[in-house]
Specification:
Structural class: mainly alpha
Distance between the termini: 49 Å
Strand order of the largest sheet: 1-2
Largest sheet: 2 strands, antiparallel
Order of helices and strands: HEEHHHHHHHHHHHHH
Number of domains: 2
Oligomer: single chain
Number of helices: 14
Number of strands: 2
Shape: globular
């Protein structure tokens, strides 16, 4: 394969990223089996039933079973949507929030199906990997746990919560990204002034991508050490966020990266807040809540709230300054 051939294949890949669906209008006339309307195309314009829908056969049985798990239609199946999330992340999400709903399997349903698959694999078939930090020595990852220190002992409750509530914590943190994304990317070249409901679907699709990556990495859990696999996933997820947000919002690499830094900074404060609240409520394991004095219980959560919103305010001001020209053009 020569250099020119590789460049041509890359150009085709980029064209596919931006425009993956090619619709062909049907010329054959159909009579709808549901409402009796005569039309041309693939779907009835009156009742929206598919033109090719005929008598029930074994194909119908197979299709119904596959549809239940989102595997029936090639163009809107879970697997095809995950494929697009993996190779055209930002463009795919942009298509969905722009109104091109047919390019994707319903996002919330897709996340639910993959979450069920994740639960079956990691909680039933591979229970030894059910927690994010399950079985990992804190000393190995560079954290020391000192039960006598009220202020600096952040790692213990943080990782205790993640270890026992990984699925819930990842879901909560994914939705915690909605607000800072809305603040930092609202004046972007593409999808400017996107709404919070649109941000909800953005994060649902990104959460689906993260669950898919964990499922794709299952063989690696048996080959490498768990901390190695988690490090790889952390790097891959970070790269996907940068690439996906760049494709979705249209900023350059640097503009996307520094805005995401503020987004993740806010989310990290939220994570620490939730971890401490869970710890003080007695949801973490192996450490007695009474070992921590009252001032730490009261002021540490408040500190995380204050620092998180302060961090967000600084990012908002910098974003306002750097996007002044874009805002004037949009107005």
């Amino acid at each position: 394969m020569n250099w020119h051939s590789m460049k041509e294949q890359y150009r085709r890949f980029k064209r596919w990223q931006r425009e993956p669906m090619r619709y062909v209008q049907g010329e054959v006339e159909h009579r709808c089996n549901n409402c009796g309307f005569t039309f041309r195309g693939h779907y009835c314009p009156t009742c929206s039933q598919r033109a090719s829908l005929g008598r029930i056969g074994w194909h119908s049985v197979r299709q119904s079973v596959m549809d239940m798990w989102g595997l029936g239609s090639r163009s809107r199946s879970v697997l095809y949507s995950v494929w697009q999330l993996l190779f055209r992340t930002g463009y795919f999400i942009g298509d969905y929030i722009s109104g091109r709903r047919q390019v994707s399997f319903p996002p919330v349903k897709m996340l639910f199906i993959l979450a069920v698959a994740y639960a079956v694999i990691f909680h039933w078939l591979l229970p030894e990997f059910k927690g994010l930090w399950y079985g990992i020595d804190y000393q190995e990852i560079g954290f020391t746990v000192d039960k006598g220190n009220d202020i600096t002992n952040v790692s213990k409750p943080f990782y205790e919560w993640y270890e026992t509530h990984f699925s819930w914590s990842m879901l909560i943190l994914s939705f915690a990204i909605i607000f800072p994304t809305w603040v930092m990317f609202r004046y972007s070249p593409r999808h400017s002034r996107h709404t919070l409901p649109e941000g909800f679907f953005i994060q649902v699709l990104l959460a689906t991508l993260m669950v898919s990556l964990f499922l794709l990495m299952v063989p690696c859990w048996f080959i490498f050490k768990q901390i190695t696999v988690l490090s790889i996933i952390f790097v891959v997820v970070t790269l996907y966020y940068i690439i996906g947000y760049r494709q979705l919002f249209g900023y350059g690499l640097w503009g996307t990266a520094w805005r995401l830094l503020f987004v993740f900074g806010f989310v990290y404060c939220v994570a620490l807040l939730l971890a401490h609240l869970a710890f003080y409520l007695g949801l973490a394991r192996d450490v007695q809540v009474a070992e921590y004095k009252l001032p730490a219980k009261i002021f540490m959560p408040g500190f995380y709230i204050f620092f998180g919103f302060l961090f967000m305010a600084v990012g908002y001001l910098i974003n306002r300054i750097t996007t002044r020209k874009t805002r004037l053009q949009q107005n």
